[in-house]
Known about the structure:
By secondary structure, the protein is an alpha/beta fold. Helices cover 38% and strands 16% of the residues. The strands form 2 sheets. A 6-stranded parallel sheet has the order 3-2-1-7-8-9, sandwiched between helices. Strands 5-4-6 form a 3-stranded antiparallel sheet.
Amino acid sequence: xxxxxxxxxxxxxxxxxxxxxxxxxxxxxxxxxxxxxxxxxxxxxxxxxxxxxxxxxxxxxxxxxxxxxxxxxxxxxxxxxxxxxxxxxxxxxxxxxxxxxxxxxxxxxxxxxxxxxxxxxxxxxxxxxxxxxxxxxxxxxxxxxxxxxxxxxxxxxxxxxxxxxxxxxxxxxxxxxxxxxxxxxxxxxxxxxxxxxxxxxxxxxxxxxxxxxxxxxxxxxxxxxxxxxxxxxxxxxxxxxxxxxxxxxxxxxxxxxxxx
Length: 260
Ligand code: BV8
């Protein structure tokens, strides 16, 4: 790593070690190095499928089979991938820093699988199903509820006996889970350093979080090989893949504080 980059990581590591609280927002870019497609890049999901046709309630009511097919394909794909060095570095930062909050837009469960113990999932988790009517939740090992969609057999809710089951993810036009968005909002407002990692910062209200942090005086770091609408606001833009930048940050912290 060349001298200037080394200096950038050392300075950032010093800030992180002395910060009272750190908040991180991750997006699909963090999981790309695990083999999970992003949404808005050239090879992204939204270039093959239209979100209006798949990731919203109207689409589900209009054509539940089509939506179930798409989520079954994504669930199968996500069940076969593993956390990458970026996920693992975030789990290490949770241990290395005084106060660390991980907020994610991702539904792939990879942060938990990497060892992050406290993950604020703004957009739900593809491993859970919920009833479209009574909102009962069903975990993968719940014998009562078919987790998978079988051709022509839409999973129905065993609790209310009326509603259709659907993946427990937040679709466009749906409110985010109250507790999660409240927690993310308050962490963004009071953190000293906010890291926006692997997100195009295009979808609200998640995309408002780095802006709120910056407006409240936080030092804003963006980790993304590309520029985004957030880049002009960032104090530092590490134009690197998260699987490179995040382990480099952990290494710089461990060099500064070997006891850690
Ligand atoms: C809501 C879960 C109240 C499901 C998702 C007009 C203006 C402002 C807002 C709106 C508007 N009209 C409607 C809205 C609200 C809407 C919205 O924001 N729309 C946008 C498109 C304008 N939001 C909502 O509807 C939200 N609910 O607001 O409720 C309400 C109700 C009614 C009407 C109005 C308001 C709900 C949004 C949640 C949608 N669910 N996902 C599923 O996954 O199937 S969205 C999905 O896309 C993700 O969860 C994520 O949140 C979002 C953005 O994706 P990213 O994660 O950022 O991924 P993306 O591909 O875009 O970018 C990846 C980045 O990584 C790139 O920059 C790339 O360069 C980078 N990268 C690539 N490789 C790497 C990398 N970075 C690091 N390392 C690498 N190796």
